[in-house]
């Protein structure tokens, strides 16, 4: 139980941090238009098999300004994500995987699952 609580707190803190950074970045782009924006839709394979985990991961991505889950493959193994500005889409995907997907995987795929 302690490990799950730690994971929940980590995910929440990381989300709040990323949320405010994204708010700043999107607001800056609105007030200081930049022609070098790189909007992109990326295909991100996911390890998450639990529907609650997929839902939470999609929610975290979509609530973060500048990113939005636009679709999920029929077999629920691939997310299609729109980024407002992602000059390096691989880096954006890896950041999501490292910060949220791995923690959600541990949280929802452990033996004493919720």
From TrEMBL:
Localization of this protein: Cell membrane
Keyword Membrane: yes
InterPro entries: Cation_antiport_E
GO cellular component, one term: plasma membrane
Signal peptide: none
Keyword Membrane: yes
Name recorded for this polypeptide: Na+/H+ antiporter subunit E
Membrane-crossing residue ranges in chain numbering: 7-33, 53-72
Keywords: Cell membrane, Membrane, Transmembrane, Transmembrane helix
One matching Pfam family: MNHE
Any one Gene Ontology molecular-function term assigned to this protein's record: monoatomic cation transmembrane transporter activity
Family as reported in the entry's similarity comment: Belongs to the CPA3 antiporters (TC 2.A.63) subunit E family.
Membrane topology qualifier: Multi-pass membrane protein
